[in-house]
Each structure stands twice: as structure tokens, then as C-alpha cells.
Amino acid sequence: MSCGHAYESLSLSPMELPFNFTKCLVLCLCLVILQIQIKGQRGCHEPERMALLEFKALLKSDGYDADHLLPTWIDDPRSQCCSWERVACNHSTGHVTRLSLSNTRQFDGLSMLDEENVWLLNMSLFNPFKQLRVLNLSFNGIGDWTDDNEEVSTLEELETLDLRGNMLSNRMISSLSGLASLTNLILARNQLKGSFPAREIIRMTKLERLDMSSNSLDGSISKQGFLYLSKLPKLKYLNLRSNLIGNKITKILGKLSSLSYLDLSYNKLEGSFLSHELLNLSKLEVIILQGNLLNGTLPVRELMAFPNLQILDLGVNNFNGAIPPYMGASLSSLKALSVVRNKLTGPSSIQGLCGLERLEELDLSENRLEGKLPQCLQNLSSLRLLDLSDNMLVGRVSSSLMAALSSLEYINLGYNQLEGLFSFSSIGNHSKLEVVQFVNNNDKFEIVTEDSGWTPRFQLKVLVLSNCNLNKITNAIPSFLLTQKQLRVLSLSHNKLKGRFPGWLVANNTKLEFLSLRNNSFSGQFYLPINSSMNSTWIDVSDNQLEGQIQENVGKLFPNLLCLNVSRNALEGKIPTSIGDIRKLEALDLSSNNFFGEVPKGLFAGCTDLQFLKLSQNGFEGEFFSSQYNLSGLRVLRLNDNRFTGSLSNVKFNSNSLTLFDISNNLLSGKIPSWISNMTNLSILNMRNNSFEGDTQCAPFSFRYVDLSHNSLSGTLPSCSNIQDIEQIHLQDNNFTGGVPTGFLNSSTLLVLNLRENKLAGSIPNLIGMLSSLRVLLLRGNAFSGVIPKQLCQLKSVSMMDLSVNQFSGPIPLCFDNITFGKMEPHLMSISEKSTHLDYSIGNYKGRNLLKRDFFIEETTDGSILQVEIEFVTKNRPSSYKGDILNYMSGLDLSCNNLDGEIPRALGNLSWIRALNLSHNQLTGSIPTTFGKLTEIESLDLSYNRLSGEIPSELTLLYSLAVFSVSYNNLSGKLPERKAQFGTFDNSSYEGNIFLCGLPLERVCNPGDESPPTPTSSMPREKWYENEVTVFLGSFIASFIIFFLGVITVLYVNPYWRRRVFWHGEELIFSCYFCVKDFIFFRLRDLVSRLCHWQ
């Protein structure tokens, strides 16, 4: 009988009291028990209290702030330890039963791994706790015990021991073997190595849960170890995640017949499914093999050996092929299935899962599944999580299918090839729905939310509708969002939505953490309400039409922001000083607006965590780089296209975290600072178009990308030995002298070498052939001389080569057809953009899920991408190439040199080249007919040479040709037929060739003007001007001497002719004199008359 019932039984009449004496005794006994319980709650045993105080004193002696961590642990007899934090007691006995001493030394993840922080713990401190059942010592950096190992065994009632996150070795596990009462042992994230510690845990016969994840165990075991494992009959839970375990582990696991939970994820398992030993574990309910090297088709038949299987995770492996059609019938007990990030294929694979009617979670994301969503998925009426993202699914999303899955909490169909119209109202009645993601890869999918007559029953936490033509007809923001009050993540980016900035979204959802409205057409003032969520960490409204100024109090409204991106709008004004109050701010992008003024000094004083700062393309001015700015934590700094002044000599960079540094297109001056050599992690350096001067050292060339072009740098280029990893060098338009240093030619990774418009001279070194990865070589506008070396032909990956405006001589190398010149190979790296990775992942959804899968949204800060720009003369004008077109542009420019000889026929094999310029040289011979194979060419310039013969009719097959010039040569014959592109060329393409005829020239072709047949190899074509120059000069001089002596002889013999010649000579001199005199006189008179008239 309970005390309550005994009390109720006392409500009797006086006549009944003698008969209830027994009941009164029961009531008294209950009161005594209650008093004991109350006393037990108020007190604790003195030895245990003293042991706790001794533990606190140990922390203090090691220099830790124990008073802050354990404020109620005080040495006062009136203070009962059962009420202290981290302590729990048995209410009946007053003994301590639970101690939660996790991270008592307050380490972060990195400092805990420092060997200097190893803690030698005195385990005898816990001897007084005779009834201790749970002891948590996780994340304390424990590396060893200070006392005898046997003393650990005094905790005879200990059931759970949590030692995760320490530095325990295999030797320490043996000291725990005396804890025979343990049922739960957690040794995750320690320093366990080598074989499985079967011997060390042999005496823990009651052990049910064992967690040794995140160590370095390899899974091997001795023969004796197999016998030990058979003495763990109760072990049900085994977690060996993130070790170095191979396939040998299966032999060990076969002995653990009671296992129901097995986690071998992120190990080194390989091949097909595990061996037959595993098939003996018929009680398995959970199998997690994620993150291994398993391959082959899905092992459905093998998995049938586990009739109770409920959770199966085979994600992040190499399984391929289609999902077997019998999988649904074979594994009917499954509740959760994940095969994420494999290589599954097949147009109807998903249909094989329609028989899994108990399934609650299905994740097939990041595969190669094709086809449409099968309608039979509506059989999965218990489905709560559906993730089919990152596949190749096509077709429409059936509204009836989605409506039938009424238990859904999580939907992700993003990154597919879906088409057609999807009505959002079809999931409006899903009252449990919390997460919805649709991010499409094409422009054929459309989501409509403005159906009339529906009101959502859900309260979403995560909504991502990106690039899905949201309300394409009206471009209106979804009105159902007015009813949502629990949103934590909202992304409506890339949808062309219009209207005023929806500040009400921020006001209604006070838990909002992530907001992305980028790349829409929102207009008006960028105003954030005063009652905004204080927990917001990410706000991105870039690529809109917002205007006005950023609120001065933005830092007060969002003190926990990690990222603020308002780039590519029409905002103006100065940077609010309150941004400096956002202590946790990591990324700030204000680029491509109309901001002006100086950058506030408090920005760097307050934002101590700032990693990414992009202020480019604004009107900022002043000396950004002053001693008052501490830029030590930055990883990306982009200040390009402003009006910043001053030098870099005073800037503070106390760390080497910087990876991208872009100050191009400003008014900076001075010398390149020496501190750049300290930036060991710097990858991209862009200082182009400033006024830097002086010479340059090797430091800038140790990075992957360096652009110092359009400055006033001088001196010789340094010969550096530490540039093996550089990819792009841009030094255009400076005053460098000397030759190309051999250090520049010692990099197998170099993609771009741009030395245009300097004062470099000498010949091209033969070592240039070692640049095996080179894609772009620009030497235009220097004074290089000599022959073009054949070693250039070894640069087989080059797509753009400019050797123009130099002093090269000799013939064009015959081997240029070895170079790709635009033929893109799969292994060639992109040169259009360089980036450093600055990704942010925000976990925002921790729903009830069997796969232990949290929601993550990943965003890449695109401001860390630097767009490469290269100048190249084509179509008779200088052009700048950037973006994707740079990867496909190709050209060869040898113009304005002293090259001679014939044009190699092999150049006609450059079928991918888009621009070829051989003008302003001394090339001879005919135009090769092989040029008719230059099918991709857009610009062909052969002007100002000595080419002869006719223009090959094969050139009319060049349908992409837009600019063509053979002017000022010695070409003859009839012009090609005016068809295709040749019908667009005018006289300027042919002028300076007096023997050419036909349209568009005025000279009409006559039968006698037809060009003679093309000479063959047996009948070479010769012209008078192609004879030997020495023979021609000799005959000319001899003829002139004979003529001159003949005239002198005649004048000497005949006096009459001599007088006539002298008389005519005098007349000619006087005539010329008066003619010049009259011309000058009349011109001066006319000029004076005009001046007077003007006055």
C-alpha cells in the first residue's frame, strides 16, 4: 500500500479507527522514509565531498580557473555536494552516483592535442565514490594515471566510463580491465593504435556498448584474441568509426554474436561486401559502412542474412550499377537507407525501393540516377526524410506523389534536371514538414506558390528554393511566407524576384540564422527591422537593385553575424562604424556599389575574426594601409578599383593567413614591401595598374599567381629558384631590362608568362621548352632578337603565343604544328580564374533522424575568385579576354619582326586556332593551300610581306573568318569567289597588290590576267625579284658605270653638246629658284591676309 492510499484511508469515522491501526503504522513508516529521502537530498558523505574538493584543488594547482568552472564547490560544511554542478546523488543513500567532469581544463580542439597539455590524473581521487555509476572524464587531455593501475578497479559499481577526447594509449586500457561492472565504455578520440584490444577488455563481461571511434586501430588481432572475444557475450553496440581498419575486422566481428549495432564507417574496408563471417550476426539491426572503398553492385542478397535490419548506411563508397528491383521485397524491415555519394545508375532504379513500406528515411543523393520519380514512391507512407539531390533525374515532380507522402519532414530534390511546373500547395497539408530544398540545374523547372485557396499547415525551419523560376509569371515573393514564424534558413536566390526588400521576413522569423536573396531584382531601401533575430549569422542580398545607405546601427542589430554580403547593388554612403562591433564577423563584401570615403579604423579593431574583406569597385579613398589597421587575421583582401593612396610600408601583417591580396587599379605607390616574403600561405597577388616603382625581388614569385603589370617597376628580372609552384606571371607594361631569367623557366606548373611591353632583350633561352604546362606566352613589344627557337615547339599545350613587335629574324619554325593552339584537352587546367577556397557550412537542422544526419547548407564566397584578364591583338585591334572565353581563345602573333622565308605548310594543321597574324615581316613564297584547313580561324593577317602567287580558293571554306588581310604583297591573279565570308571583305583586304583583279577591286580580270597554273615541285615558280641579290646588285652597278662613262665621253668629244647641257642646267637651276621663291612669297602673303581677317 502506498503512502497516498494510507492517508486516504484515514478519512473514517471514529467508530472505524480501532480497526485501522495497521494503516496508521504504514503512514508513520512512509513519513519516516520521506524524511530519510529529504535528508538524503540535502546531504552527502564527507569522504566524497572531500574528494570533490581535492579534485578542484588539483585543477587550481595546474593553473586552471576552477572557481569559475565549479563555483558551488566550496569548502563549507553547510554546502552539500549533491547540489553542486556536475554532481548527481542517490536520493535514498546520499552517495554520489554520477560525475560529469568533461573538459574541466577548458581546452579547445587544438590545444588539447598539444603534448605539453597532457594531464596525469590521480585516479585514487575517485576511490571514495563507492556507488559511482557514471563517470565522465571526456576532453581533458588525460594521457596517463599517476597512481597504481589496480586502484581503478575500486569503482565496483561503475557502469559507464566516458574517456573520449583524451590522449590515452593502448597501455592505459589494460588498467581499466578491473572494472568488471562496466556496461558502457567510451574511448573515442584517443591515441589507440594497432590491433584490437581484446585482451584488455576480457574481464568486462557485462560490457554492452563499446565506442573506440576516431583512433588508429587497424583491426588486426592475435589468435588468442579470438578466444577473448567470445567472453563478451553481451556486447550489443560496437563503434569503430574513423580508424584504419581493413577487411581483417570481419573475422573479429564474427565472434560477437549479440551485436545489434555496428559502425565501421570511414575506415579502409574495400572490395565487395564483407566476408561470410559477418553473416553470422543475425541480430544486427544497424549497419553503418559509410566512407570506405567498397564497390560492386549493392549486396542485397547478402543483406538478407540480417532479418532484423532497420538502418543501413552504405554512403560514400563506390557501389555502382542499378538498384536491384527486388530490394524492396528482400529488405522489408528497413526503416532508414542511405547510399549517398556512390555511383548508382539506371533510369528506373528508384522503383526497386517502392516495396520498403516501413521506410522512414531515404537518402540517395550524389549518385547518377536517371529517369523520372516513380509514382509508386507514394507507397512509402511512413517516409519522413527524402533526399534525391545531386542526381540526373528528369521530368516533372508529380503533385499527387508529393501530396501522398504526408509524413514528410525533410524534402531535398535539388541539383537535378527536373522540368515542368510544380505546385507548392501539393505539400501544404504536410503538418510535420520542416525542411524543403529545390535547387535546379536548368531553366526548365518552375515552382508556383500562388495557387488560390491554400494555407500551409507546416511551420518550416529550412526553405531553399534557388534557381527554380519561382513564380516565373509574376516574379512575386511567395505569400505563404507571411505565415512562417520558425524559419532558421531561407534562400530564394537566383529567381528574378521583384518588389521592395522584404524586411518583414526578418521581422517575422526571430530565429532566422541564414538569409540569402542574392541575384534577384529586389529594389528600394535596404532596411533591416529593429526586432531582427539577434542570432542571424548570414545575410546575403547581393546582385539586386537595392539603394540608399546601410543602417548605422546594423552592428547592434546583428551582433552575431558571420557574413554580410551586399555586393553588386546601388548602395551608397560610408561604411557604418557599428560594423566594427560585430565581433564574430568573418566575411564582409561591399563590392560593386557606390560607397565612398575612408574605411573606418574601428572595423579592424572590433572585427577580430575578419577573414574575408572585399571593398572593390567603389569610391573608397585615403590611406588604407596605415599603422592603425591590423590586418593580421585576413585570408582574402580585395581592394581593387578604388582610389586608395599611400604605400604598403606601414601595414601590419602579423600572421601568414593571407591567401588572396588584390589591390589592383588604385593610386598606390612606393616600392613592393619586404613583408610580402613573410606571407607563406599567399596564393594570389594582384598589384597591377598602380604606381609602384623600383626593382622586384624573388618574394612575389613564390605564389601561384602574381600580377605586377602596368606599374613603373624597373631593373632586371630576378633569377629565383623558389618558383616551382607558380602558375601565372603577369609583368606587362613595366620598365624591366635584360633577358628572361632561367629561374622563370624552371616551373612545370607555369600556365601564363606575360612579359609584354617591357625593355627586355636578347634571345629566347632554349630552356623555355621545359615549361611543359604553359598555355599562354606573351613577349610582345620588347627587343628580343635572333631566330625563334625550335624549343617553343615543345610547348604543346600553348593556346596563345605573341612574339610580335620584336626583332626576331630567320624562318618560322616548321614544327609549330606540334602545338595545340586551342585544342582543349581534358587534362589542361583552366586559366580563366584563380580562387582561394573560403567556404562556410552552417548546420541548422537537427531533426529526429535515424541516420544521424544534420542539415547543412554550404555557401562559397565568390569574392575569393579572381578573374584573369589577358590582352591579345586579334581582328586588327587589341582585345581583353577573360572569363570562360579565355579558356577557348587561341592565337599566334609573329607580326612586326624580320622573319623571312616561306610560310610553313604545316601551319595549316592548326585547325583549332582562331587568330593568326604574320604581317609586317619579309615572308616570301605563296600562301599555303593548307590554310583551307584552319576551320576555326576568325582572323588571318598576312599583310606587308613579299608573298606572291594567287590567293588559294581553299580559303573560301573558312566560314568563321571575320577579318582577312593580304594587303601590300606581290600577289597576282583573280580573287577567290565572293561567297560565304569572302563576300564581306572590301578593298582594304587586298590593296597594295597591283596584279590582283576581280571584285571587290576595280581592276577587271581579262583572259590574259588569269593566273598561271600553280607551279609544281618539278617546275618551280620564280620571279625577277627572287633571284640572288648579289647577282642583281653586280649587274646593276656594272650597267650604271658603263652608262656614266659613255655620257662623260660624249660631252668631252663634242663641245656643242657640252655647252647645251651646261646652258640647260643653268636654266633649270634658275627656274627652280624662282618657282620656290614665288611659292613661299604667295603662301606667306595669303597667311598674313588670313590672320588679319581673323583679328
From TrEMBL:
GO terms for cellular component: plasma membrane. It is found in: Cell membrane. Keywords: Cell membrane, Glycoprotein, Leucine-rich repeat, Membrane, Receptor, Repeat, Signal, Transmembrane, Transmembrane helix. Gene3D superfamilies: Ribonuclease Inhibitor. The chain crosses the membrane at residues 1029-1053. Its main location: membrane. Residues 46-90 form the Leucine-rich repeat-containing N-terminal plant-type domain. It is a single-pass type I membrane protein. It comes from the Eukaryota. The keyword Repeat applies. This is Leucine-rich repeat-containing N-terminal plant-type domain-containing protein. It comes from Erythroxylum novogranatense.
